[in-house]
Amino acid sequence: MDAFDTYQTPLSSRYASKEMAHLFSPSNRFYTWRTLWLNLAIAERELGLPISGEAIEQMKNNLRLTPEQFEVAAREEKKRRHDVMAHVHTFGTVAPAAAGIIHLGATSCYVTDNADLIFLRTGLTYLVRSLSVLISRLSAFAAQYRALPTLGFTHFQPAQLTTVGKRATLWIQELLWDLRNIQRARDDLGFRGVKGTTGTQASFLALFDGDHAKVEALDKRVTELCGFTYAYPVTSQTYSRKIDIDVLAPLASLGATAHKIATDIRLLAHLKEIEEPFESTQIGSSAMAYKRNPMRSERVCSLSRHLMVLHQNALMTSSVQWFERTLDDSANRRITLPEAFLTADIILSTLTNVSEGLVVYPMVIGRRIAQELPFMATENIIMAIVKAGGDRQEAHEKIRILSHEAAHQVKNLGLENDLIERVRKDPYFDPIKGHLEELLDPKSFVGRAPEQVDGFLKEWVDPALSTEEIKEAIQKSRNVELSV
């Protein structure tokens, strides 16, 4: 990261990955502006405008700003009250042969908006890679615990059994949808290109003496030089702020997914069934030494709420863009766009950290199952009695009475669930007592959960993580782990 990446960067960037923090840093922003000016000059020269090779070379050799140039730009901006023109002047001081042609025919949004689109596309790529690593980690967790029975919850009340791995697939499935949505948003992004002050390309038409074909060729060539496959066919002075809505929507949706996952982990930590990583020297509370607070998951929930709210800014900003443009979008976007990406980046890195160190407590899980399973097993017991020649209605009444007695022990006396012991002592159930252990095996209550995990990982996760870009990101993450 450059020394000037912390200059005027959002506070959250201090906690983001180096690549995401650098993406929205001033040094990268102004480097990108200079690259855009260079590409514009190259294209204009190719199409016949009198721009010297020396000008192009000086621009190429001075794309990175030095500390001294940051100071010059700051002084110029204070004097001119215009950030783009301050940097046009600053660039000209180190590329004097190009000073007269930098920004030729362009409006400020040529650099500001095109740079933003570059940042959005690159930021989405970073998120695709980080999200893929998280999915890979949780998939390994799901495979490891594919068949471990655990009590299911509906309304946070005990429900039919599932498995620890199957529950994790519910998290992963939503993350796969987030991956799809982020990839779609990235791949759909276009370029503003060279459109002029109100999008009519009038200035460029004048530069090329009314040659419409050359103006169209200029737009296409600059778009190509900047690495985009197409430019938006029409724009105002800016690219439509609706694009920001489309980009921030999948990030907000990711925030909802992350909040749900982290909340589930927090609830499981309360139940002492699963915990996030907790270092040996970590302190959970300044007063209560025994505490093991799920602080990472709580952080994810906190940041996720922030991420979800940022999308509202994009919606409101897009809705109030008057005619060809108004400037009340600028200050908002300078905060909202970087914050959204930096926040999403931190959420993913935190969740990945949690996923790599999740601790499962099978004995606690088993004890909770034992407390609830007798009630859930009543239908199996009734069916077994019927198969042994008994009467269903009579069996149902017997179980109903014993269940209420056991419930009284649990709810009113605070004792363990002794329904099965009551069944064992009742002569009515003698024909099936030899099969009770089999009838109470938790694995017989999870249905196809283990097979669902296997099928989901093979048919949905593996294909989603099969691209070279994603495989490379996952491998790079593993290499980093091995080097630590």
From TrEMBL:
One of the protein's GO biological processes: 'de novo' AMP biosynthetic process
Matches recorded under SUPFAM superfamilies: L-aspartase-like
InterPro entries, A to Z: AdenyloSucc_lyase_C, Fumarate_lyase_CS, Fumarate_lyase_fam, Fumarate_lyase_N, L-Aspartase-like, Pur_lyase
Listed pathway(s): Purine metabolism; IMP biosynthesis via de novo pathway; 5-amino-1-(5-phospho-D-ribosyl)imidazole-4-carboxamide from 5-amino-1-(5-phospho-D-ribosyl)imidazole-4-carboxylate: step 2/2; Purine metabolism; AMP biosynthesis via de novo pathway; AMP from IMP: step 2/2
A family per Pfam: ADSL_C
Cellular component, GO, one term: cytosol
Coiled coil: none
Keywords: Lyase, Purine biosynthesis
Entry's EC annotation: 4.3.2.2
Keyword Lyase among UniProt keywords: yes
Keyword Cell membrane annotated: no
Gene Ontology MF term list: (S)-2-(5-amino-1-(5-phospho-D-ribosyl)imidazole-4-carboxamido) succinate lyase (fumarate-forming) activity; N6-(1,2-dicarboxyethyl)AMP AMP-lyase (fumarate-forming) activity
Domain Adenylosuccinate lyase C-terminal: 373-457
Substrates-to-products reaction catalysed: N(6)-(1,2-dicarboxyethyl)-AMP = fumarate + AMP; (2S)-2-[5-amino-1-(5-phospho-beta-D-ribosyl)imidazole-4-carboxamido]succinate = 5-amino-1-(5-phospho-beta-D-ribosyl)imidazole-4-carboxamide + fumarate
SMART domains, sorted: ADSL_C (SM00998)
Quaternary structure and partners: Homotetramer. Residues from neighboring subunits contribute catalytic and substrate-binding residues to each active site.
Family note: Belongs to the lyase 1 family. Adenylosuccinate lyase subfamily.
PANTHER family to which the protein is assigned, alphabetical: ADENYLOSUCCINATE LYASE (PTHR43172)
Protein's name in the database: Adenylosuccinate lyase
Native species: Hypsizygus marmoreus
Chain's gene name: ADE13
